[in-house]
Specification:
Elements: H1 11-28, H2 33-51, E1 58-62, E2 80-85, E3 91-96, E4 108-109, E5 112-115, E6 118-121, H3 124-133, E7 161-170, E8 174-179, E9 195-206, E10 211-222, E11 227-238, E12 243-249, E13 255-256, E14 269-273, E15 283-284, E16 296-304, E17 307-318
Parallel strand pairs: 8-15
Antiparallel strand pairs: 1-2, 2-3, 3-4, 5-6, 7-17, 8-16, 9-12, 9-13, 9-17, 10-11, 10-16, 11-14
Helix pairs in contact: 1-2
Length: 319
């Protein structure tokens, strides 16, 4: 018989083989004892081959035969793909490119339950527990369309606060503090590291001679003489007596008032403006306040005429 083995895929097939061998054994008892001895030896080898198989588990394996130098029974040491299920509860899938000799590379997915001929996911809480127990971190993956576009759910931050402010009769260049990052008592927020703007809306009315710009942004640098403002919203006023309205929705992301990420250059970066100084108070939503790095501010850069009314509302959260 050599080293050939009969591979059995299920208990039913094993039962059929046993029945066939038993019938064959009965048929040949009176015919040839040599054949009977061969059959009995084959049956013994079959029992040895199946004895090491855990009937409660199914192991499916795909590997590179050229790289596989591990013993035939050492599943953990083999390269490639291994899927193991206990038949009822979970299906563990491992991709390993290093023969298991070091920390596993690739991915391990666990927690798929088998119901009949279906493989279904575990409840999310149980799946999280399984993955965490193996030392892995769950990284959400967003599905893509055929055009390589990702689906996005639009939502606002649950910790969003709202601040509103209005000024009238502005006849000179003026700065205002909309959110004092260091003052969580008067300007509601939970953290004091960085402001994130979720949405913004403002309107303004100027007379026929009004000219200039309205900027909303944050302070990136300041000293006793001057300050630098990063403006992310700018609305020009061009000598027309009309109401202008601006609305911006930044969700599901946000405008991060992150001073460390500010690059050099001009454009919407208002550099060395004496309106902002760290020893001069500016009007604020709740009270006059000295501006500081990270504060959300508004600058009415009036050139001519009168800005009759400027109103602003901002949704924000902090980290």
């Amino acid at each position: 018989m050599g080293d050939d083995r009969l591979i059995i895929d299920s208990d039913d097939e094993e039962a059929k083989v046993d029945a066939t061998l038993e019938a064959l054994k009965v048929d040949v008892v009176t015919a040839d004892t040599g054949i009977l001895a061969t059959i009995e030896a084959t049956l013994t080898n079959l029992e040895k081959a199946t004895a090491a198989v855990d009937t409660d588990k199914l192991i499916v394996q795909c590997e590179d035969a050229a790289d596989n130098v591990a013993p035939a029974g050492d599943v953990a040491a083999r390269k490639g793909f291994v899927a193991v299920t206990d038949g009822t509860d979970t299906l563990d899938i491992t991709f390993s490119g290093d023969s298991g000799a070091s920390t596993k590379r690739g991915i391990m997915a666990a927690g798929l339950r088998i119901e009949g001929n279906k493989i279904l996911p575990l409840p999310i809480a149980q799946f999280d527990d399984l993955v965490t127990s193996m030392g892995y971190t769950i990284v959400p993956v967003t599905p893509m369309t055929r055009e390589r576009e990702e689906g996005t759910k639009i939502h606002t931050n649950d910790a969003c606060f709202v601040v509103s402010y209005e000024v009238t009769g502005v006849e000179a260049k003026t700065g205002y503090v909309l959110i004092d990052l260091s003052n969580a008592a008067n300007y509601p927020h939970t953290e004091v590291n960085e402001i994130h703007v979720d949405w913004i809306a403002f309107s303004m009315l100027g007379d026929v001679s009004a000219e200039g710009h309205v900027h909303i942004g944050f302070i990136s640098a300041i000293d006793a003489d001057k300050g630098t403002m990063i403006s992310f919203v700018c609305k020009p006023v061009d000598k027309q007596a009309r109401t202008a309205f601006v609305s911006r929705q930044y969700s599901p992301s946000a405008v991060r008032c992150k001073t460390a990420a500010v690059l050099a250059g001009g454009g919407m970066k208002i550099v060395d403006d004496t309106t902002f100084q760290n020893d001069v108070e500016l009007a604020g939503v709740y009270a006059a306040v000295i501006p500081a790095v990270g504060d959300l501010v508004m600058l009415i850069d009036r050139v001519a005429g009168t800005f009759d009314t400027v109103s602003v509302a901002i949704g924000y959260h902090t980290i």
